[in-house]
Task: inverse folding
């Protein structure tokens, strides 16, 4: 069983973006990073980020909460 550990979380700003979104960046054994993307507390997508830095994964999470990435 793979252990996944959360590293950071990002939240949408309701004053700037009406989307109720949250993203969590996790790291797991044998997996570089996982970005879990939620809307209205429901998991909408999960992306495995391999071969990139933590900064890249966090940029992905930020793009989700800002509405750059669509459902």
Result:
């Amino acid at each position: 069983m793979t252990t996944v550990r959360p590293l950071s979380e990002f939240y949408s700003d309701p004053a700037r973006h009406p989307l109720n979104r949250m993203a969590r960046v996790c790291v797991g054994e044998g997996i570089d990073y996982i970005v879990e993307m939620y809307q209205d507390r429901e998991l909408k997508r999960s992306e495995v980020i391999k071969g990139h830095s933590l900064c890249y994964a966090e940029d992905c999470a930020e793009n989700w909460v800002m509405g750059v990435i669509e459902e």
In short: Helices lie at 54-66. The beta strands are 4-11, 21-28, 31-39, 42-49. Residues 22 and 38 are 5 Å apart (CA to CA). The chain has one domain: 4-66.
